[in-house]
Specification:
heterodimer; A: 459 residues; alpha+beta; 5-stranded parallel β-sheet; B: mainly beta; 4-stranded antiparallel β-sheet; 11 strands; 9% helix
C-alpha cells in the first residue's frame, strides 16, 4: 500500500480523498493554489504545498508544478480526483516515467477511451450496442442524406473533433439535414479547425444511465450498479440517484453486463463509469467511458456500502478486489443533489463570493460532502460547486422526502444556490413518478429556470 | 517563518522520530521550538512554543492554527534586513548556484538588476533560472541550498 499520496485537486474531492487516505493510514499531501490558501480541508492533510496562482492552468493543471510538488514531498502516488488532470493521458504517462503511481487507469487506456471514435469501436467490438451512425466521416450532403435514409430520422450531425455542443445539429427531415450538415461543418471548422462531421441516429428524450465499474490489475471486474443522472441542464448533472426508477431487473442486468464487457475490452483497471443512453423503447446505447472517479460516486457508495476512493487506492497499489460480483449487495435508494453557487433566476450564472452563514443539514439518512463553512469565500477561478447533499433511505419515495427535508434545513447565506430549483424538481409529479428524462429541466424550467411552470406541480 | 514551515517541520519530525527541534528564522529573528509531547508515539500532538520575537503568542496546536500561509507573528524588524520579499514563482527545489562547487548567484550584499539570475529552481528535472525582475541589493537569503520551496514562498529580501 502507498505510504504518501499527493492529491492533485481541490475542494470537496480533495477533502474526500484525504478522508479515504486517513482511514487507510496513508499520509496525504494536499497541493493548493493561492486562491485556495484559506481552505480548511488543507489542515487535514499531513503536508500542504502551494503550487501556483489562482488560474488552473498555472496550478491544478500544471503538470510540472504537481510533479515537482510530489517530488519534494516524496509522494509515492498521485490521486487526480475528477476534472483537471484526471483524464489527461500525458499526465498519467509523466507520473509513470517519474515512478509515481497514478491512481487511475493506464495512460494507454485513458487515451483509447478519450477518443470518441475509438471508444465507440471498442464498445462495438465488445458486442455492446452503440447509437447507429455513419461509422466514420461523411464527405458530402448526398452521402449524408443517403445514410440518414438508412438510419431513419431524427438524425444528429456531430463534429468529429467536437465537444460542448458545438458543431452539433439535429435534423428531423431531409431539408433540415442539408442545412444542418453545412452549418455543423462550418461551425466545427471555426471552433476546432477540423470540419469533419459524422451522423448518428438521434435518440429523443433519453435517460442517462451510467454504470460504476471497479477493476483490479489482475483481471477482476465488477459493476456496482447504475446511477440515473437524467436530471441535467445543458449536460450539467443536477440530481443523481440509484437505483434508476426506469430499469426493470432484467434491463438492469443487461446494461450492467454491457458495462463490464466494455471495461474488459478496454483492459480497464481502477474505478470507471460506463455511460449509456436509455431510449423510451428500452433500447440502450453506449456513449462513453469516464476513466476517473466521478462527482456522483457517493450515490453508489451509499447503496453498496463500498468506499470507492479506498478501492481506488487499493487497486492502484496492486491489491486484488476483496469481493466478487455475487458479494455486492444493493440496499435502499440514494439520491444526490449537487448544490452549486449559481443563480437559477439568472440562467445559472455562477454566484461566487463569501458564504456568510453555512448550516449543514443532518439527521438520519443524510450525508454531505462539502469543503465549505461560514465565512468561506468561493473563489471565482473554479467550478461553482458548494457541495453534494446525499440521502439514503429504504425506498425512493422516502429518499425524496428526506432530501426535501435536508434541502429545507440547509442554510447557505450569501451566494445564490441551486437549492430552490432542486426542491422544485423533487416535488414535481413527473420526477416523483420516475417519469423524467434528460429533457426534463429544459422542458419545465427552460424559460424561467427559477420559476416553476405550473403543470405537474404537487407542492 | 510561517505555519506552512512549522507544519512541514512537524511532518519531518514525525517521520524521523524527532521529539524536539529548535528553529531560528534568520529573516525575522524568530525562534521557535517544536516539541512533540510523548514522542515518538504516533498520536502525540506537537506543540509549538515561540521562544523569541513573537510578542507572547500562546503555544498553539497546528491542527487548529490559522490557514496555511498566514504569518505566525509579526516579524521583528532588523533595520539591516529591511527589503521586499522576492517570492518563488514556482514549486520545486531551490539551488543558489549552478553546481555544488559554483559560486552562489546571489548572496547578502549582491547588487542585482532585472535580468540578474538569483537562483535556480528545479522542477521535473528542469533547471529554471529565476531572474530578479527588479533592481536592488540582496539583504537576506531566506532558503537553504537544496531545500524544497513552494509557489509564493519568500526566497530573498531585496532592498531597492
Amino acid at each position: 500500500m502507498f505510504r504518501r499520496v499527493l492529491i492533485a485537486n481541490r475542494g470537496e474531492i480533495a477533502q474526500r480523498i484525504i478522508r479515504a487516505c486517513r482511514e487507510l493510514g496513508i499520509e496525504t499531501v494536499a497541493v493548493y493554489s493561492t486562491a485556495d490558501a484559506d481552505a480548511v480541508y488543507l489542515r487535514q492533510a499531513d503536508e500542504t504545498i502551494c503550487i501556483g496562482p489562482g488560474p488552473s492552468a498555472k496550478s491544478y493543471l500544471s503538470i510540472p508544478a504537481i510533479i515537482a510538488a510530489a517530488e519534494i514531498a516524496d509522494a509515492d502516488a498521485i490521486h487526480p480526483g475528477y476534472g483537471f488532470l484526471s483524464e489527461n493521458e500525458h499526465f498519467a504517462e509523466v507520473c509513470r516515467s517519474c515512478k509515481i503511481a497514478f491512481i487511475g487507469p493506464e495512460p494507454e487506456t485513458i487515451a483509447k477511451l478519450g477518443d470518441k471514435v475509438a471508444a465507440r469501436e471498442l464498445a462495438k467490438s465488445a458486442g455492446v450496442p452503440i447509437v447507429p451512425g455513419s461509422d466514420g466521416p461523411v464527405e458530402d450532403e448526398q452521402k449524408a442524406s443517403q445514410i440518414a435514409q438508412q438510419l431513419g430520422y431524427p438524425i444528429m450531425i456531430k463534429a468529429a473533433a467536437g465537444g460542448g455542443g458545438r458543431g452539433m445539429r439535429v435534423a428531423r427531415n431531409e431539408p433540415s439535414l442539408v442545412t444542418g450538415y453545412h452549418a455543423a461543418k462550418s461551425e466545427a471548422l471555426a471552433a476546432f479547425g477540423d470540419g469533419t462531421v459524422y451522423l448518428e441516429k438521434f435518440v429523443e428524450n433519453p435517460r442517462h444511465i451510467e454504470v460504476q465499474i471497479l477493476a483490479d490489475k489482475h483481471g477482476h471486474i465488477v459493476h456496482l450498479g447504475e446511477r440515473d443522472c437524467s436530471i441535467q441542464r445543458r449536460h450539467q448533472k443536477l440530481i443523481e440517484e440509484s437505483p434508476s426508477p426506469s430499469l426493470t431487473p432484467e434491463l438492469r442486468a443487461r446494461i450492467c453486463e454491457s458495462a463490464v464487457k466494455v471495461a474488459r475490452q478496454a483492459n480497464y483497471s481502477n474505478a470507471g463509469t460506463v455511460e449509456f443512453l436509455l431510449a423510451r423503447d428500452g433500447n440502450y446505447y453506449f456513449i462513453e467511458v469516464n476513466a476517473r472517479i466521478q462527482v456522483e460516486h457517493p450515490v453508489t457508495e451509499l447503496v453498496t456500502g463500498i468506499d470507492l476512493i479506498q478501492q481506488q487506492l487499493l487497486i492502484a497499489s496492486g491489491e486484488k478486489l476483496a469481493f466478487e460480483q455475487k458479494d455486492i449487495q444493493f440496499r435502499g435508494h440514494a439520491i444526490e443533489c449537487r448544490i452549486n453557487a449559481e443563480d437559477p433566476d439568472k440562467d445559472f450564472m455562477p454566484s461566487p463570493g463569501k458564504i456568510d452563514l453555512f448550516v449543514p443539514p443532518g439527521g438520519p439518512g443524510v450525508r454531505l460532502d462539502s469543503h465549505c463553512y461560514s465565512g468561506y469565500r468561493i473563489p471565482p477561478n473554479y467550478d461553482s460547486m458548494i457541495g453534494k447533499l446525499l440521502v439514503h433511505r429504504p425506498r425512493r419515495d422516502q429518499a425524496i422526502r428526506t432530501m426535501l427535508r435536508a434541502l429545507d434545513e440547509f442554510v447557505i447565506e450569501g451566494p445564490k444556490t441551486t437549492i430552490p430549483l432542486q426542491r422544485n424538481i423533487l416535488s414535481h409529479s413527473d420526477f416523483r413518478a420516475g417519469d423524467h428524462d434528460t429533457g426534463f429541466v429544459e422542458r419545465y424550467y427552460g424559460h424561467h429556470p427559477g420559476i416553476p411552470v405550473a403543470s405537474g406541480e404537487t407542492r | 517563518m510561517d505555519l506552512k514551515l512549522i507544519q512541514r517541520l512537524i511532518a519531518m519530525m514525525k517521520r524521523a522520530g524527532v521529539a524536539e527541534l529548535d528553529v531560528e528564522d534568520p529573516a525575522t529573528g524568530l525562534k521557535v521550538r517544536v516539541v512533540r509531547e510523548g514522542a515518538p508515539g504516533p498520536s502525540s500532538a506537537p506543540v509549538v512554543h515561540l521562544l523569541q520575537g513573537g510578542g507572547g503568542a500562546p503555544p498553539m496546536h497546528p491542527g487548529y492554527a490559522a490557514a496555511p500561509g498566514a504569518p505566525l507573528a509579526a516579524p521583528v524588524n532588523e533595520p539591516a534586513q529591511q527589503g521586499t520579499p522576492f517570492q518563488s514563482p514556482m514549486v520545486g527545489t531551490f539551488y543558489r548556484a549552478n553546481g555544488p562547487d559554483a559560486e552562489p548567484f546571489a548572496s547578502v550584499g549582491t547588487r542585482v538588476g532585472p535580468d540578474t539570475t538569483l537562483c535556480i529552481i528545479e522542477a521535473m528535472k528542469v533547471m529554471n533560472e529565476i531572474k530578479a525582475e527588479t533592481s536592488g541589493e540582496v539583504v537576506a537569503v531566506l532558503v537553504e541550498n537544496g531545500e524544497p520551496v513552494e509557489f509564493g514562498q519568500p526566497l530573498f529580501l531585496i532592498k531597492s
